[in-house]
Structures are given as structure tokens and as C-alpha cells.
Amino acid sequence: MFKVAYDPIYAHPLPEGHRFPMLKYELIPAQLLHEGLVKPDDIFSPGVLAEDIVLTTHDKDYWRQLRDLTLPLKEQRRIGFPLSARLVERELRIAKGTIDGCLSALTNRIAFNVAGGTHHAGTNWGEGFCMLNDQAIAANYLLHSNLSKSILIIDLDVHQGNGTAQIFENEPRIFTFSMHGDKNFPFRKETSDLDIPLADGVGDEEYLDILCKTLPKLISQQKPDFVFYLSGVDVLSTDKLGKLSLSKEACRERDRFVFEQCINNNVPVQVSMGGGYSPQIRDIVDAHCNTFKAAIDLYF
């Protein structure tokens, strides 16, 4: 069975008024356990990432300002969270969970992080609820440890993976692919190796048609030996920030297709859950759990 990174600190590192976006991090593993989709032994609590690994990806001065809680208020507002030691620890645990998931996926073909997908964090900035870029840190870890030579990052969150694009703009061993809402946050986009901007209101058929025509060619061209998948569910029609019009069924089909391509090409994949901002928490949790269900159907 695949491994699932989860730690209780993911859920409540914030003051009361900021907690709604965090509820899903508690509810997803609870729902997976309730439905018998995973066992308690499949879920692990990651430790705190070492500073030297953070610095393979993020600027030293930026990291020290986070660590020492001295980041200027303007930069904190850009992140969207009030800075605290618990919040920084949360980011370190998320990134460590993604690295641990990669190591598991090398053997078990797939692994999940209930949190993660912090793709708006760049080399020396955080924004959009992202402070440290978990998949970027993990991708660099694989390269520096000689565990991978060619990595594909598939970012299907509704928001462009601008931080990831910036971090790897000069790294030929990592190919960044982002398919996202054109008129959505971040309003200043970076340049991924492949960007597919989508108009507001794109629905099931058009979305899946674009993905199905793009991803197999991309994998064939790049020949990655490892894939990172950011499976945000803010593409749903119910999402208050998304501006796209996908159904839960199409979102699950999207996930199934990505996993099929990884299986067909014998490439391990690490999955971080990304965004989801539907007003009803049940819609968010159901859609994220469907990602796990799609994996279980195909891998086990």
C-alpha cells in the first residue's frame, strides 16, 4: 500500500479566523480511515526538515527571516498567514513528508502528502499561503542524492505554479508543467517549461481533452524517471476561488489519467494535495479522497 504523510500540526497552526482552509488536512485522513481505504499503519507523521535541505532550494536570507520570525510585515501579508513558529514548523514537516513520500514511491510506485503543493513559494518569497515549496525541495533532494536524473512536475492546481517555475527556470533536469486558470491568481505569472492557461468557465470535456492530448506526449518527450503531481481540487465548479467548472467526476478522471500515464511509463509519482476552497468542506474532502480512490483502483 502507498504511504500517506500526515501530521496533526498541519491542521491547527493558525488563529481561529484562519482555520477553515486547514480543516481538510484533518478530515481527509479521517475519511480515508473511516471508509477503510487506508490503514493506520499507512499514515505516517513526518519529522522536521533539516535546514541544509531547505537551503538547496530557498535563499538563505529568506529562510532565516522565516526561521527567526523577522520576515517584514509586507511579505507576511503576501503569504496570507500571520507568521508564527508553529506555522514555520508546519512548512518544514510538509516538505519532509514530501521527501519521505518520494523515497517510499521509489519502492511502492506512489505516495501521498495530505498537505503540500505549496507551489507559490519561490526561491526568496512566499505567497498565497505558501512559504516553503515542498515539491521543489523534494525534487532537488532527489537530484542531489542521485536518486533521479529527469523529473516532471505536473501541476494541475487551478493556480499557476509560479514559485516552482521560478525555482527551476534554469534547471534542465526538471520540467515544469502547469495547467491553470489564465485570469486567476497569481496575477503576475512566471514561465513554466509548459504553461496551458485556461479561460474562465472551462468544463469537463474541454479540460480532459486538453490534458489527454498533452500529457502522454510530454512524458514521451521528457522521459522522466520521477513525477511530482499537484492534484488541487480548486478546479471544481463549486470552488469559490477557482473560476473553472469541473465536476467531481471529471476531477477524479483527471487524477486517474495522470496515474495511468505514470503506470504505463513505469514512473513513480509523489502526490501533494494542493488547493481546494469550496464553501462546503464536504466537497473539498470528497474530491481529495477521490484522488486516493483513483490511485487505489489502479495500483492495488
From TrEMBL:
GO terms for molecular function: histone deacetylase activity; hydrolase activity. The keyword Transferase does not apply. It comes from the Bacteria. Coiled coil: none annotated. Residues 22-289 form the Histone deacetylase domain. GO terms for biological process: epigenetic regulation of gene expression. Keywords: Hydrolase. The keyword Flavoprotein does not apply. Belongs to the histone deacetylase family. This is Histone deacetylase. It comes from Mucilaginibacter ginsenosidivorax.
